[in-house]
Amino acid sequence: MSITSRLLPLAALVATLAAPATAVTLTTPLTSGNGQAGIMFDLVAGPRALVITGAAISLDAGTHTIEVRTRPSTVVGNLTATGWTLIGTVTGVVGGGNGTQTFFDFTDFAMAAGSTTGIYFRATAGTPVNYTNGTLVGAVIASDANLSIRSGFGRAGTFGANFSPRNFNGSIQYLDPVPEPANWALLIAGFGLIGAVARRRRSAVSA
Fold first, then answer.
1. What DSSP assignment string belongs to 73-107?
2. Which pLDDT value is given to residue 154?
């Protein structure tokens, strides 16, 4: 087997691991049926780390301002402001009514593999956030191999009255997971192999 043919599988691995992350959108059912000023719920990462980059939400018609808060653990038992961080206030979010969703951007945040992050979307005026009555807080309402969206709580005002279980109507956007440390270790070892083969080849030529 030639040196070139030996290096082709390694080159393919390098190309795969070096490829830029792609955006993925995970969408819940948009069945509505209820609504309030906001909704908070859990995001649970799968077996690899990922980065949350944006969202969409079902809103009544009109132009709204949406606050985005997160916390580094479940929303269950954490319904007060303690532990929550405001990561974005997004203006000019135009709602299209039930069954529609409007994407908006906020500060990216990372999730470790297997971790839970609470997220809270709240309109600063009125009760335009559409959601659906759920069956159990914490139940999975949408999932893929990398992320799950759980049933949570409808909220009035800012950390006002809560209503549960309530299902988020919208989407979460994230970057396709980066390679795991083991894969990077394999990549580094591969670079070492390339160097060793190249050195051996140079030695054979000079001899």
1. S-STT--SSTT-EEEEEEEEEEE--TT--EEEEEE
2. 98
